[in-house]
Design a protein that fits this description.
The protein has about 200 residues and is α+β, with helices and mostly antiparallel strands. It has 5 helices and 11 strands, in the order βββαββαβαββαββαβ. The chain folds into 2 domains: about 130 residues, Impact, N-terminal domain (Ribosomal Protein S5, domain 2), CATH 3.30.230; about 70 residues, ACT domain (Alpha-Beta Plaits). It has a 5-stranded antiparallel beta sheet with strand order 2-3-6-4-5, sandwiched between helices. Strands 9-10-8-11 form a 4-stranded antiparallel beta sheet.
């Protein structure tokens, strides 16, 4: 089955904190549209809290519940007590393209394997429940090239199709580079061809 092209993702970075038997658990969740973004985020949290006892993490890149590009780490906690429980929460959250780091400051009281798993998964679940959500919308880039007089009329079509101009140049012909939702590309192409009577070329950028 083909994975969905549109799905819920975190809209922004969000942080929550809980204290369990004097240990601080700080969960930071963020959008992760690719593995590189998730790894960069993990390193940024480590740098932000350099004196923490542990930085346990998990990420799941792709549509909600898919595991092909997911990973987790216990970061020095007993095996299976942090990363895996956190990843299970991510995969069951209904969100895609998501990464979380739970930073722990040890408070002097051991929690045991079950206590650790509950603490890490619990603070992750709370962060997920509070993070604002957005929708992932695939976008494509197009190049529009044509006479200057024809391009003036074409510009009025862009907003109607959710297209944004990313760059433009004016030589013998005018060229616009635009980005827009993938499912609007064909409608924009048809409108441009009709409005400009075929004088403006619409090509993948």
């Amino acid at each position: 089955m083909k994975p969905p092209e549109r799905y819920p993702v975190p809209a922004t970075t969000h942080r929550v904190e809980e204290t369990v038997k004097h240990s601080r658990f700080i969960a930071t969740i963020t959008p992760a549209p690719c593995i590189e973004a998730a790894r960069t985020f993990i390193e940024a949290i480590r740098a932000e809290f350099p004196d923490a006892t542990h930085h346990c993490w998990a990420y799941a890149v792709g549509a909600p519940g898919t595991t092909a590009r997911s990973a987790a780490s216990d970061a020095g906690e007993p095996s299976g007590t942090a990363g895996r429980p956190m990843l299970a929460v991510l995969l069951g959250s209904g969100l895609g393209d998501v990464a979380v780091v739970v930073t722990r400051y040890f408070g002097g009281v051991k929690l045991g394997r079950g206590g650790l798993a509950r603490a890490y998964s619990g603070v992750t679940r709370r962060a997920l429940s509070e993070v604002p959500r957005a929708e992932r919308i695939p976008r494509v880039a197009l190049r529009l090239t044509g006479p200057h007089d024809a391009m003036a009329a074409v510009r009025h079509l862009l907003a109607r199709h959710g297209a944004q101009v990313t760059s433009e140049s004016f030589d013998a012909d005018a060229t616009l580079h635009v980005e827009l939702p993938a499912d609007a590309a064909e409608a924009l192409r048809a409108d441009v061809l009709a409005t400009a009577s075929g004088r403006v070329r619409v090509e993948p950028a």
